[in-house]
Every structure is written in C-alpha cells, then in structure tokens.
Write a structure and sequence with these properties.
The protein has one domain (3-298). Helices cover 82% and strands 0% of the residues. It has 13 helices and no strands. Helix 5 packs antiparallel against helix 11 (242-249). The mean pLDDT is 82.
Length: 299
C-alpha cells in the first residue's frame, strides 16, 4: 500500500471520528456509556466482518499461523486499550462539555512520541515536536477551552488520551507483522463490545427499548466509527509511523468543529478558525518536512 493511500485513509478515518463526536454526545440520553459502546462496537463488528471474510479469507489462517501467540496477544491489548479509551471518553461526556473533551483528548498527540522516545527508545524526527505544539495550541483555540468550565470529568479524558496513545502504538506494532487490517479491525471491535457488555451487566440497566431510542446515533457511531474508521486507522498506519499518525488524527477536532457548525449551527469564531489553521499546519509540517529533508540529502 502506498503512502498517499495511507494518508487518505488517515484523513478519512479522522473525518469520521470528528463527525461521530456529535453522535457520541447525543446518543446517551436513554442509555449509559457502556451500553452505548457495547451496541456501537458490535454493529461495527457486523459491518466489517463480511468484507474481512470476502477479501482476506485466504490470508487469515496463513497470517495468524505464522505467529498465533503474538496475534492474539496484540488483539487482547489493542482491544483492551480501545475499550478503556472509548469508555472513558463516553463517560467523560456525561460530566464535561465537548470543548473540554476535545482539548484533553488531543493529549495523545504529545503522549505518543513521548512514550515512543522514553519507553521504546525510538528516534523521532525533530519536526514532530513543533508539530505537536501547533496541534495542542490549535485544539486549545478550537475548543474555546478558556471559556469552558473545568470539571471532574476532564481527568477521565486525560486518562482516555493515554489509552488512545497506547492503542495507536500497538496498532503500529501489529501492522508491521500482520497484513489483516479488515479482519483485525472487526475483531478489535468485537473485543471492545465484549468488555463493554460484561461491565454494563454489572453497572448499568440495559433496556432494549432505550437502545432502540438511540438507534440512529448507535448505528452512525457503530458502522462509521466503530467499524470503518478504526479499520481505516490500521490501513493508515501501514505506511505512517505512530507519532506523525497521531498528529494527523488530531484533525478530528477540526472536523468535529466543522460538523458542529453545519449540523448544530455552532458558528466558528476567529479563535476557532486560527485553531483549525494551526492544527492543519502541524499536520503538514510533520508530513512534508521529513520528505523535503530526505530529498535534499539525495541531491
């Protein structure tokens, strides 16, 4: 798979994540976050598994048999990190507003290179660090955080960002060994759904009627985000390393703001527009500068 296709997959994935934020926020009027995630990701699994069996059926047994233990180990950890990340994000939306959630979630942008540098001893191109700064400042302006009320739920979003970081890093580890993006994308959604329903049985009241009342938000978040977007993430990270991938994924805040502008009639102010520009600059800086330096070295 070429780098342009991976970049397109990353941007499309991020667009879906951004627009899904609205469905996540409006889909818990009648149900709890665990029930929402259980149904959302099960629908995501159902939407992807037919394509996985259609396009990857011949590769599944061969790829897994090469290193079965590593496959299931990565599946467990990736599914667990995704479960904690999505659950904490959903729960946080009950206690804080979207502005705060958007700002704190983006903490995975600096977390990914820091984890890679200090715990995996991986060298990071210097352009990543100013790109991270652009993205954090951009989300700060985009979210109108200075006018928001800091709530206890914000700590949940910071913790959520930590698990997003681990999820991005472990997806990067998976895609280096296995070429099963559709099958793995479906299975990770099933793992998240499994963990969510187990905890929901203990901590929430599950009512079919209430789930049906939130069906539009669940289906949108399930098929597009829980299924397609997280599978696109795997395609994206095939040719994009975790640190610059995290920066591209920070465009989620831009797409969320634009979606809120169009769907919820929330007008973007000057700070919001500057924030969008900073995030876009950070993304372009992280992608284009390494290419420029590699070409100048070859001249």
């Amino acid at each position: 798979m070429s780098k342009p296709i991976s970049l397109f997959s990353a941007i499309l994935c991020t667009f879906i994540w951004g627009t899904t934020f609205i469905a996540q926020d409006t889909g818990m009027d009648k149900i709890g976050p665990l029930t929402f995630n259980a149904t959302r990701f099960f629908i995501g699994f159902l939407s992807i598994i037919p394509f996985a069996l259609l396009f990857e059926k011949k590769k599944i047994v061969k790829e897994i048999s090469n290193n079965k233990r590593l496959f299931y180990k990565l599946l467990f950890w990736v599914g667990l990190f995704l479960f904690f990340g999505t659950y904490l994000q959903q729960t946080a939306l009950l206690y804080t507003d979207v502005a705060n959630a958007a700002f704190f979630t983006i903490f995975y942008v600096p977390m990914v290179p820091v984890i890679l540098f200090f715990f995996y001893s991986k060298s990071i191109h210097w352009s990543i660090w100013p790109s991270v700064l652009f993205c954090v400042l951009g989300v700060y302006l985009l979210s109108d955080f200075s006018n928001a009320t800091v709530r206890l739920g914000d700590s949940l979003v910071i913790l959520c960002a930590f698990f997003w970081s681990l999820h991005i890093i472990f997806i990067g580890n998976f895609i280096k060994v296995f070429n099963l993006p559709l099958f793995f994308g479906a299975l990770q959604a099933l793992v998240v759904s499994f963990f969510s329903i187990i905890f929901a049985l203990f901590f929430e009241t599950i009512t079919i009627a209430n789930i049906l009342n939130e069906s539009v938000s669940i289906i949108y978040a399930g098929i597009l985000s829980g299924g397609i977007a997280f599978t696109l993430q795997i395609f994206a990270q095939k040719n994009i390393s975790p640190a610059p991938a995290a920066i591209i994924f920070s465009l989620e805040g831009v797409f969320a703001a634009i979606a809120a502008w169009i769907i919820l009639n929330q007008i973007l102010g000057l700070n919001n527009i500057i924030g969008c520009a900073l995030i876009l600059s950070g993304v372009l800086f992280s992608q284009l500068l390494p290419i420029y330096y590699s070409k100048t070295k070859n001249i």
